[in-house]
Design brief:
It is built from ten helices and twelve strands. The chain has about 290 residues and is an alpha/beta fold. The chain has an eight-stranded parallel barrel, surrounded by four helices. Helix 2 runs parallel beside helix 10 and helix 8 packs parallel to helix 9. The protein starts with a helix and ends with a helix.
Length: about 290
C-alpha cells in the first residue's frame, strides 16, 4: 500500500503530539539529553558471561535505558520478561526496545514485550534485495508486524544499514520502505553511522520524513575513514560525525529515543568504550 503525501503528513502530525520532547531538557538554551540508552550489542562479548553484572556497570555510567538484542537466551538474557524488568527497575533503568527476529514466534515476543511496558520491537537487518520488489514485500511484512505490535500496546520499527541508501532501479530502497509502510503501525530507527557511511545526509532524511524516525543509534565513524570502510566505529566524540547538529535537528523532527551503539574497539574494551560514550552524551550541548 502506498500512502499519499497528505496522509503521511497528517498522520505524522498526530503521532508527534505530546511525547516528542520528552527526552530533552529545554530549560537551557543549550539543551542536553536527559535520558539516553545503550544497545546491548555494544557489550555482545561480555553480556552472555554476566548479564546482571554488565547491566549494573552500564547503569553506573549513566545509562537509563536499554535496547536489547536477541541472543541464544532471547532478549531477556536467560531471565523472564518480568525478572528482567524487575532487575532493571532496581538499577533505575528500563528496557525500551529490542532488536529481534520478527519472522519467528513474533506473537509471543510482542506479548512479552507489551506485558512489561516496552515501547518497540525492531527488525535489525533486512539485507540487500535483488530488486525493489523485495523491499516492497518487506514493507508489507513490517505492516503486518506492526499490527501484531499494536494489539500488544507496543510499536514496530526497522533499523537501517547502508544498503537502503544505495540507488536501485532508479529509487532508494529506504524511500520504498518508508512510503509503503503505514505510519500508524511502523516507525524507523535511524542508525546515523550507517546513513553517513552510505554518503547520505541524516538531516535531509529527518526533514524528508518528519516524525517517522522515532529512535536513533548514536555511533561515531572514524575520521578519514575510506568511503568503502564500513568497519570504522569508534568512541563517541573521537570520530567525524557532527552529533551536535544532527541531534538538534532530530529534536525538531522526531527523535524520541537515543541509543548508543559501538561495534569496534581500538586499544580498549567494550565496557570502557560504553563509559566513554556515556560521558560524551552527558556533556553534549546542542
Amino acid at each position: 500500500m502506498n500512502f499519499s503525501r497528505r496522509q503521511f503528513l497528517l498522520t505524522g502530525a498526530t503521532l508527534a503530539s505530546g511525547s516528542m520532547l520528552q527526552s530533552f531538557d529545554f530549560l537551557n538554551e543549550n539543551a542536553k539529553l536527559k535520558t539516553f540508552g545503550v544497545q546491548l550489542y555494544t557489550l555482545r562479548d561480555d553480556l552472555p558471561k554476566d548479564p546482571k553484572g554488565v547491566l549494573k556497570q552500564l547503569a553506573s555510567f549513566g545509562y537509563k535505558q536499554v535496547e536489547s538484542f536477541e541472543g541464544p537466551k532471547g532478549f531477556f538474557w536467560g531471565m523472564t520478561n518480568k525478572e528482567f524488568k524487575a532487575y532493571l527497575d532496581s538499577l533505575g533503568m528500563s528496557i525500551v526496545s529490542s532488536h529481534c527476529d520478527f519472522k519467528k514466534d513474533f506473537e509471543r515476543k510482542a506479548a512479552e514485550a507489551g506485558e512489561i511496558g516496552m515501547k518497540y520491537l525492531i527488525c535489525p537487518y533486512l539485507g540487500p534485495q535483488k530488486s525493489l520488489d523485495g523491499f516492497k514485500k518487506a514493507a508489507d511484512d513490517f505492516n503486518k508486524a506492526g499490527e501484531i505490535c499494536k494489539k500488544n500496546g507496543i510499536r514496530f520499527a526497522y533499523h537501517n544499514h547502508n544498503y537502503s541508501f544505495n540507488m536501485q532501479e532508479g529509487q532508494l530502497p529506504q524511500d520504498v520502505m518508508m512510503q509503503n509502510t503505514d505510519p500508524t503501525l511502523v516507525d524507523f530507527e535511524m542508525d546515523i553511522y550507517w546513513v553517513v557511511s552510505a554518503g547520505a545526509d541524516p538531516i535531509e532524511w529527518l526533514k524528508k520524513y518528519p516524525n517517522r524516525f522515532k529512535l536513533c543509534h548514536i555511533k561515531d565513524r572514524a575520521k578519514n575513514a575510506a568511503p568503502t570502510n564500513f568497519d570504522a566505529s569508534v568512541d563517541l566524540g573521537t570520530g567525524s560525525i557532527d552529533f551536535k547538529t544532527i541531534l538538534a535537528k532530530g529534536k525538531k523532527y522526531g527523535f524520541q529515543y537515543h541509543i548508543v551503539e559501538q561495534e569496534k574497539y581500538e586499544n580498549t574494551t567494550p565496557l570502557k568504550s560504553a563509559e566513554v560514550d556515556a560521558a560524551y552524551l552527558k556533556s553534549l550541548k546542542f
